[in-house]
Design brief:
The protein is α/β, with parallel strands linked by helices and about 550 residues long. The protein contains 22 helices and 7 strands. The chain has helices at about 1-10, 15-25, 30-40, 130-135, 155-160, 175-190, 210-225, 240-245, 250, 265-270, 270-275, 290-300, 320-330, 335-350, 365-370, 385-395, 400-415, 420-435, 440-455, 460-470, 480-490, 510-515; strands spanning about 165-170, 195-200, 230-235, 255-260, 280, 315, 360.
Length: about 550
């Protein structure tokens, strides 16, 4: 590929081969610089005729700055770079940097111009979403994680020492997990020497092969440059057990520094060996004043802020719009920034063709239209599912009907299956209401059947009725405690396999009667006052159920 590119520039094949051999054969730019540095001093080995080689096609590939005043173009007959033959075919698109031609009187030095780039080595583009452009570049730019990034925190100490540990960043969406991972590397490298390179993968789009390729690249990079690779894996919880296990040896031997990001509880979704090798750091949802700071930074940043989304238009955002977005984004900076950008675009559309009006004003109505409705944080298979059902159960146990209905609605609006909630109510009717109101179980079972018949949304009021009934009902956990006490005795008692007393055994055959089965049993309906024991001898007098309870609410 490099040889073809050099030939397309017009270099002789012999000279191109020498250049590639001298520069390692992997860079067209380096090979070109070598050729020009050689041909700028005539040498018998530089060209077949022993003179400096002239290169008429090279200017199509590179842009050469010149400190001299711009010269008038020479005529075809006087210009040594003109040719009467047909123009050469256009070079590959990734080589064409500029079509400008430098003055032919002096060959300039070849260089590859670097575009304006951010600290993460990618060009800031207007096409990037505002949330991407506004990512914090260093740890000091991060907003809202004061405890995690305090001056005495683990991360600050690691950055100062340029010794980044393997970590898991756990937190809700839009709290800065990816940004913090990048900022850690940038800040560590700014301490004196560039000790790390940053490689980013996502468990959504990559597999084990991609991960192994990254491991191999990290090993080669470490051998060649004596620098370590920070491998960032977003959505790490989406990897299964075997995929997560593939990280263990390379974290263990120091091939990579691993940073994983997840919105799910690591205790549920990450394997124990991986957690053993990483420190779990928890990110908190952003507070409204944190989000306000982020939004105002986006409005005021002239280089990568909101103005770049609108081209030549200026933008003015009202305080009411900023306050509304920061209050209703649920601590998700990405949601707030995306909504701000959408509202600014909507405001810009109103500017129209009036040449005197060059300012897009974002009002409260624009922010409301952009945000539409609050996103309910709920995952039927994740931690929030268990958090909410726990809140519902404990609110009913505390006899708070208002709170119980609130948590019920949160679950239903989040998309929870009504039959799951109804099953939990059936359990609650026996566990927490129990003997204090035996009809509660009938109510819960009837609720389940009605939900099965109707489904959502019609069954929502049935669930609410049952939730209110159970919350307001008297409570008794006597049966629940009795079950626990009996289980403990059965599992731990040395007499747990003690045989059933003979008088309690059934005797359907003659042989069993001869062996004493059922002997001395007193038929209770005929002798209600008879004193008869029903427990094994080792448990005589043991009491499991405390009923009737002295206090129905306490059981």
């Amino acid at each position: 590929m490099e040889m073809e590119q050099l030939l397309s520039m017009g270099f002789p094949s012999e000279l191109a081969a020498q250049a590639l051999a001298a520069t390692g054969g992997k860079s067209t730019v380096k090979a070109t610089e070598w050729i020009l540095s050689q041909t700028s001093h005539p040498h018998p080995n530089n060209s077949p005729n022993g003179s400096s080689f002239q290169q008429p096609k090279l200017d199509r590939f590179f842009h050469f700055p010149s400190s001299k005043p711009k010269q008038e173009p020479s005529s075809p007959s006087n210009s040594p770079t003109q040719t009467t033959t047909a123009p050469p075919p256009p070079p590959p698109h990734h080589q064409v940097l500029s079509a400008q031609t430098p003055p032919p009187s002096k060959r300039p030095k070849v260089f590859a111009p670097s575009p304006r780039s951010n600290p993460h080595n990618h060009t800031i583009s207007n096409d990037e979403p505002l949330a991407e452009r506004m990512r914090p570049r260093t740890i000091d730019d991060v907003i809202g994680q004061d405890l995690l990034l305090s001056q005495k925190s683990l991360l600050r100490s690691a950055i100062r020492c340029s010794r980044i540990p393997s970590i898991i960043l756990w937190g809700p969406p839009g709290t800065g997990k990816t940004s913090i991972a990048r900022a850690i590397v940038t800040s560590a490298n700014s301490q004196g020497s560039s000790s790390y390179r940053f490689v980013s993968l996502s468990a959504v789009t990559c597999g084990v092969k991609d991960v192994r390729d990254a491991f191999e690249d990290a090993r080669k990079f470490k051998l060649k440059n004596s620098k370590r690779t920070v491998l960032f894996l977003d959505e790490v919880h989406r990897f299964n057990k075997s995929q997560q296990d593939s990280f263990l040896p390379v974290i263990e031997d120091g091939t990579i520094v691993f940073i994983g990001a997840t919105t799910e509880n690591p205790s549920f979704h990450l394997v124990t060996p991986l957690l053993s090798r990483c420190r779990v750091l928890t990110l908190s949802p952003l507070k409204p004043h944190h989000v306000q700071t982020i939004l105002k930074r986006a409005v005021n940043d002239p280089d990568k802020g909101l103005s770049k989304s609108l081209g030549s238009l200026g933008v003015d955002v009202s305080e009411e719009a900023v306050e509304f977005l920061s209050t209703n984004c649920d601590g998700d900076a990405r949601v707030a920034l995306n909504s701000l950008e959408i509202s600014a675009v909507a405001a810009a559309a109103r500017v129209g063709s009036d040449g005197d009006l060059r300012l897009a004003s974002v009002a409260l109505d624009d922010a409301k239209e952009a945000l539409q409705s609050k996103h309910l944080a709920y995952d039927r298979a994740g931690e929030e599912h268990y958090n909410l059902i726990s809140a519902l159960h404990k609110s009913m146990r505390g006899s708070d009907a208002d709170a119980s209905i609130y948590w019920l609605v949160r679950m239903l609006e989040g998309g929870e299956q009504p039959l799951y909630i109804a099953r939990r109510l059936v359990r609650f009717a026996s566990e927490d209401v129990g003997l204090a109101d035996p009809l509660a179980l009938n109510q819960a079972v009837a609720c389940y059947q009605a939900c099965h018949f109707l489904g959502m949304p019609e069954c929502n009021v049935i669930l609410a009725q049952c939730v209110a009934y159970l919350a307001l009902a008297p409570k008794s956990i006597s049966v629940y405690r009795a079950m626990g006490a009996a289980q403990k005795v059965v599992r731990e008692s040395v007499g747990q396999n003690e045989g059933v007393p003979l008088h309690l055994r059934n005797a359907p055959t003659k042989l069993m009667k001869e062996l004493g089965y059922g002997k001395d049993y007193i038929y209770t309906p005929d002798n209600p006052a008879a004193n008869q024991s029903f427990l094994p001898p080792s448990l005589q007098g043991y009491k499991f159920l405390d009923w009737p309870a002295s206090n129905a609410n306490n059981g």
